[in-house]
Every structure is written in structure tokens, then in C-alpha cells.
Fold these 2 entries.
Entry 1:
Amino acid sequence: MRQSLVIGNWKMHGSRASVASLLEGLLGAEPASGVEVAVCPTYLHLDQVLQGCAGSGISVGAQDCSHAQSGAYTGEVAAEMLADIGCTWVILGHSERRQYHAETDALVGAKLSAAIEAGLKPVLCVGETRQQREGGEANAVVAAQLAGALADQAQLDGLVIAYEPVWAIGTGLTATPEQAQEMHAFIRGELAQAAGVDAQKTRILYGGSVKPGNAAELFDCADIDGALVGGAALVAEDFMSIAGAAIG
Ligand code: PEP
């Protein structure tokens, strides 16, 4: 039995004031028992969110980390530093990192190793573009992203995968439950062939315009174990309602 997991990706949003008010909304809401809940603010807001969420049952993560442990990497943040301040999670290989920062599967794999080494729980994002889906390449693209990042990993216990079709991120378009389930089952099949991964235990989240109105039908699918939520994670009521839909 895989415990449901709902993670909010706050992307590059927030000020100290807006983060305080979002936290107030999240902590004031009915706690979603039976589902694991996490939020990933910007690096700058991590400390504020870690302090705010202490003892609440909401865990905290970062949206990226460096592939390197330390050194002359201006602007980078090491996985070890994130673990040191109390982060639990790190999102890796998000399509916006792949698109705007030219992150390759090899770099994502190196970040994954760094995260695991530091004791963080990685959330590895994979997903195809609209053009790739229309060209019938979705499975091949996702298989290559998984193979590229998972090759040669020493230890993959606790790995979380997020299937995020690029065409559904921030667009209001969502994969149908059938499309999402089909890809999640495909991913689980690929994981079963990867060394060091227990495919049946690995949680596979769906991400891409998840809202309170479409969450339940996605979570009803056998291989969808929760969600990585962008836009709706910035509205406490919506995010907690999505988390509530994942209970069970
Ligand atoms: C995301 O960026 O991870 C995401 C799923 O965004 P949204 O929910 O806004 O589509």
C-alpha cells in the first residue's frame, strides 16, 4: 500500500508577507490525515516555511539542488545545505529547469545522486511535450528521462516520480485520468526494470493543472499516488482540498 502524497511547488512566487499568509491558511485548515503533504517554496523562503511548518505534519522541500557537494558554483545550493536546514524533499528535473536551464538527463541524474547522498527524498519529474505526444513519442521520451536519471544510482529507496506532461503544466489542460493512468502504469513498468527500485513501493505523482475539481478522478486511478501541484498550491484552500481528495 502506497501512502498518498501531495506536494506543492510554489515556483518563483512569494514575499515574506504572502508566504506568512499562505502558511496561516495551510496550518489553519483541517489537517489532511492519511495523506502526506509537503510544500516547496523558493530557497529564500525555506527557513520561514520550515519554522512555520515545524510540528504541523507538513514537510518542506526545495525546487532544485546542485549536482556538486560544495565549491565554486556561484548561485547554486547544495543538497547537503538543504538537508542541514531541515528540508525533507527536493524536486529534480522539473520541465521548467529542463527548458530554461538546459538540464540534461545526465545532470538530473547527478543531482539525484547528490540528493540521495545528502539524505533528501528526491521527486524526479518526467514528462513529454505536446509535440512529442502528438508524434507518438511520449513513452519513449519518458523512458529515456527515467533511464538517464536512474542509471548508476547506488540507492533509490524512497524515490518519488512525478509524471508532468509539459503541455499540462500551468496551461489549464489536464491529462485525462485515462491518459495519466496509462503513462503511470508505463512508468511503473519501466521502474520494475531499473536496478535498485521497488516499483510497487514507488509513489508516482501526477502533475499538470491539478485543481480541486479534477483531483479526485485522477487519484481514483490505480497507479496515481498523489500530485505535484503548481498554481493551485498557492491558494491554501485549494491545496488542502486537493490533499483531502488524496486520502484513502
Ligand atoms: C508544476 O509546475 O509542477 C505544476 C504541476 O504546475 P501546475 O499545477 O500549475 O500545472
Entry 2:
Amino acid sequence: MNQTIQDAINEQIKLELMASHAYLAMSIYCEEANLPGCAHWMRLQSEEERAHALKLIDFMNDRGARVILQGLPQPQIEFESPLDVFTKTLEHERKVTASIHRIYQLSQKEYDPSTQVLMQWYINEQVEEEKNASDVIAMLQMAGGSGVGLLMVDRELAGRTGEVEEE
Ligand code: FEO
């Protein structure tokens, strides 16, 4: 497997694990803020990001490439509000999307069809991830971000079910 692609995927593994770590920290913040629905949503999101990293690790292993796990920085643990949490989530997802698009382009340039097909899966996934975060932001903005409105959004978030896909 091309070294440039290997390096890019190793970086992506780090980015997915950083997202997992960041969302776990957000889940803890929500729990402390007495928002169990928000905490549940973020816990599931954290698990989903870990699954994204594992999917890349499996792909590298299957192709005989070298996985190099890197250290993760401490995630942000304090937030201004649930709206702040989901705004930062969307920002993070946009960075992930840009990174996935870069690997997709790289796989075209280096002629690596398998990576290209895998990146197609992540491209579709990112559309979903950005939409999910945007939807919650819109709900929080409509609800006014406190009191009964916030309680209703929290109840809605409590209904999220796991979407971790294994292939
Ligand atoms: Fe795996 Fe949300 O990016």
C-alpha cells in the first residue's frame, strides 16, 4: 500500500479517535448538566467515531499496511451550553469531512481504487453526521436553549438509537 495513503489513513484514525474522545467529554459535560438525553446522544456518537477508527484499522490490516496509533490531546471538557456543545460538534465534523475528501482525492491521484471505495462510504457517512449535528443545533435554537424547551430537546435526544455499522 502506497506510503502517502498509509500516512493519510493513520492521520484519519487519529482524527476519528480524537472525535470519539471529544464526544465522550461532551457526554460527561451533559451528564453533569443534568441533560441525560444529550449525554446519551453524545455517548453513542463517541462509540460511532470509535467504530469509524476501527473500520480504518481493519482496512489497513487487511491490506498489510502498518497501523501507527498516536497519542490523543486532552479534549475540551468545559462548555458554555448544549448549543455550544453541538456547534463544536458540527465544526469538528466539518474538519473530518475535509480530511476524508483529501484522502479521496489522494486515492484518485495515487490510483488506489480500494481506498477510493472505502472513502466513498465515509463521504456518505459525513453527510449524515453533519446533518445530525445541524438538526440538533436547529432544535436547540428553536427551543431557546433553556427551561422547558431544553428539556423537550433533551427528551428527543434520549431517543437516539445506536447506528454503529460493522461490515
Ligand atoms: Fe467519523 Fe464523525 O466522523
